[in-house]
Write a structure and sequence with these properties.
This is M24 family metallopeptidase. Residues 197-216 are annotated as: Disordered. The chain is an alpha+beta fold. It is 33% helix and 22% strand. The protein has helices at 2-18, 29-36, 88-98, 114-123, 135-140, 145-166, 175-188, 251-269, 277-290, and strands at 23-26, 38-39, 44-48, 54-57, 62-63, 77-80, 104-107, 128-131, 193-194, 199-202, 223-228, 230-232, 235-236, 239-244, 302-305, 309-315, 328-331, 334-337, 341-344, 347-350, 360-361. Strands 6-4-3-1-7-8 form a 6-stranded mixed sheet, sandwiched between helices. A 3-stranded antiparallel sheet has the order 9-12-13. Helix 6 crosses helix 7 (175-188). The longest helix is centred in the middle third of the chain and has 22 residues, at 145-166. The relative contact order is 0.11.
């Protein structure tokens, strides 16, 4: 796998040096992992125009489990910093300044605090700092087959965990208890951990975006909404489903569920290469707005997934750009009615052309309105 990371760094270097860059400092943790396969809290990556790349870490980094340390191949130098070094980014700036001919250092300004940016400038006063922008994030948009394979496993683990929960007794259990059980089941099936804090909402809390599970117990007649995801080899997926507790759903629950399901299906069907991000959002949003639920919708109806949950692209009304093939995204419309509850249906899919069968659905747990 080390050649994959070498190629990724090479593409980034070619792009930056073509724009007149000399050295680049990558500090965003997901970007460091994408370019090296290593992860350690606080680690940063210094890329040189001459191909001399150095990973500076306050601790011995952990690999992704598939390869030996890339430093052993000679592709990447690794420097484990002594304990008295407070910021690896500052050490990286000093190292860049020590290299002959380096006068310009690109940094990820969107990842740096003002204080940290000032510290870099003070540590290497002869260097001119420029903004690398979101160059690495843009490169991460389109996933290779190794990345998609990890996402498929993450989705399979998530589906298994959710499926097992649906076979258990739910009435009387708290939201917090169910969330903890789901996360345990993710680990039991091989996840590195949850992709994000698991969300379980019942009754008036159902369908509430970002709801933190509390002590409310599941009762007959409730909507029960669940949103979870597994993290596998660093890659994260997301699934959200809504169920009814009891023998049969009420008429208003059926009506609301069918509307959200229609919106989610429209969003999924729009996931084709060349489609504008905002057009996907519009496809999912239109059925709910037409039914009078426009005031209850979130700012967006989906986002990219990969080494982070909520990475680019954003599927929202103001989003600019068009979908490419092999970009994994979520489609997740939802409606929450204050005091009553609501419905969420989330899936993770990979954008594919119609010639290849259209969008590839990774999360396959049924979207039928089950009465549990």
């Amino acid at each position: 796998m080390s050649e994959v990371y070498v190629a990724r760094r090479g593409r980034l270097r070619d792009r930056w040096t073509a724009a007149g860059g000399e050295a680049a400092l990558v500090s965003r943790p997901a970007n460091v992992r994408y370019l090296t396969g290593w992860s350690a809290p606080g680690a940063v990556l210094l890329l040189g125009a001459d191909g001399h790349d150095t990973l500076l870490s306050p601790a011995v980094p952990a690999t992704d489990g598939r390869t030996g340390p890339p430093c052993a191949t000679g592709d990447l130098r690794c420097a484990v910093l002594p304990g008295d070094v407070s910021d690896p980014a500052v050490a990286a700036a000093e190292l860049a300044a020590s290299r002959p001919g380096t006068e310009l250092l690109a940094v990820e300004e969107h990842d740096l605090t003002v204080a940290r940016h000032r510290a870099l400038a003070a540590a290497a006063p002869r260097l001119r700092l420029a903004d690398l922008g979101r160059a690495v994030e843009q490169q991460r948009l389109v996933k290779d087959e190794e990345e998609l394979a990890a996402l498929r496993v993450a989705a399979e683990i998530t589906d298994h965990a959710l499926g097992e929960l649906l076979e258990s007794i739910l009435v009387g259990r708290t939201e917090r208890h169910l969330a903890l059980e789901l996360e345990r089941r993710l680990m039991d099936h091989g996840a590195d951990g949850p992709a994000f804090p698991t969300c379980v909402g019942t009754g008036r809390n159902s369908g509430l975006p970002g709801h933190r599970p509390g002590d409310r117990r599941v009762e007959e007649g409730d909507f029960l909404s669940v949103r979870l995801g597994a993290r596998y080899r660093g890659y994260r997926c997301q699934v959200g489903r809504t169920f009814v507790i009891g023998p049969a759903p009420a008429d208003w629950q059926i009506e609301l569920y069918e509307l959200v399901f229609a919106a989610q299906r429209a969003g999924r069907e729009a996931l084709l290469p060349g489609t504008e991000y905002r057009e996907v959002d519009r496809a999912a949003r239109q059925p709910l707005e037409a039914a009078g639920y426009g005031d209850f919708l979130e700012a967006g109806t989906g986002h990219g997934v990969g080494l982070e949950i909520g990475e680019d692209p954003r599927l929202s009304p103001a989003a600019m750009g068009k979908l490419d093939a092999c970009v994994p995204v979520t489609v997740e419309p939802g409606v929450h009615l204050p005091g009553r509850g609501g419905v969420r249906i989330d899936d993770t899919l990979v954008v594919r052309p119609q010639a290849d069968g259209g969008p590839e659905l990774l999360t396959i747990t049924t979207k039928e309105l089950l009465a549990l």
